């Protein structure tokens, strides 16, 4: 998860841990100077720190997507980036992962949340 505000990312992680405690969740939030923004280095580190080989990636606003795309290009992991409503997308994916839903079913559910 990538958010422009660290507290948003931390709060969403806390919410997800309540419904999907077995799902590895990492996040990057805020800029390097603890302000509003995103950091490629933090996004890249969140990907590295996530123990999963396949990652479902979510973001809140434009530059977060840009930093995710750059980090995805430099990663060896399989990463799917979703252009969906941030909180709903993360919650939906984590809940389904916790229930051992196949990735194809998760992607199908997330398709309904695509921001158009």
TrEMBL record:
<dbReference type="InterPro" id="IPR036662">
    <property type="entry name" value="PTS_EIIA_man-typ_sf"/>
</dbReference>
<comment type="function">
    <text>Component of the dihydroxyacetone kinase complex, which is responsible for the phosphoenolpyruvate (PEP)-dependent phosphorylation of dihydroxyacetone. DhaM serves as the phosphoryl donor. Is phosphorylated by phosphoenolpyruvate in an EI- and HPr-dependent reaction, and a phosphorelay system on histidine residues finally leads to phosphoryl transfer to DhaL and dihydroxyacetone.</text>
</comment>
<dbReference type="InterPro" id="IPR012844">
    <property type="entry name" value="DhaM_N"/>
</dbReference>
<keyword id="KW-0808">Transferase</keyword>
<dbReference type="InterPro" id="IPR004701">
    <property type="entry name" value="PTS_EIIA_man-typ"/>
</dbReference>
<dbReference type="GO" id="GO:0009401">
    <property type="term" value="P:phosphoenolpyruvate-dependent sugar phosphotransferase system"/>
</dbReference>
<dbReference type="Pfam" id="PF03610">
    <property type="entry name" value="EIIA-man"/>
</dbReference>
<keyword id="KW-0418">Kinase</keyword>
<dbReference type="InterPro" id="IPR039643">
    <property type="entry name" value="DhaM"/>
</dbReference>
<dbReference type="GO" id="GO:0019563">
    <property type="term" value="P:glycerol catabolic process"/>
</dbReference>
<protein>
    <recommendedName>
        <fullName>phosphoenolpyruvate--glycerone phosphotransferase</fullName>
        <ecNumber>2.7.1.121</ecNumber>
    </recommendedName>
</protein>
<feature type="domain" description="PTS EIIA type-4">
    <location>
        <begin position="1"/>
        <end position="116"/>
    </location>
</feature>
<dbReference type="GO" id="GO:0016020">
    <property type="term" value="C:membrane"/>
</dbReference>
<dbReference type="GO" id="GO:0047324">
    <property type="term" value="F:phosphoenolpyruvate-glycerone phosphotransferase activity"/>
</dbReference>
<comment type="subunit">
    <text>Homodimer. The dihydroxyacetone kinase complex is composed of a homodimer of DhaM, a homodimer of DhaK and the subunit DhaL.</text>
</comment>
